[in-house]
Universal stress protein UspA (Kaistella jeonii), 144 residues
Amino acid sequence: MVNIILPVDFGDSTEDLLKGAIKFAKEIKGKLCLIHVAPADIGFAIGDMGFQYFPEVEHNEIKQELLSLNNLQQRILAEGVDCEHLLKQGIAGDIILDFAKEKNAGYMVMGSHGRSGIYDVFIGSLTKELTRRATIPVLVIPVH
């Protein structure tokens, strides 16, 4: 069975991305390996007293994201596609590529909003980065 890496961020485009990934997994009889990368600084805030760390904020956010991953996994399994998931904190591009290598993945599925130009200069594009750095084919699904 071919492992397919599916990074998710729980944004507005997750639904379209999920539908496309499920369709692709069914076509090639693959297994979806969901991954969500949370920022490493999720519990930090800056205020009058400088940087402060709030572990309860980080804990609650991670707990919610893990619940969301579990829900996505259950939806995928209900569609008849094998699935597993992972949540990590850190730099998304590096963690996703490490996960793909660890799972000996055959494909990666990413979404594209179709933005370009000045947006990429200031924000960057994880899809763009991963299509450039990945050693496996990356299927890019347009999401709106």
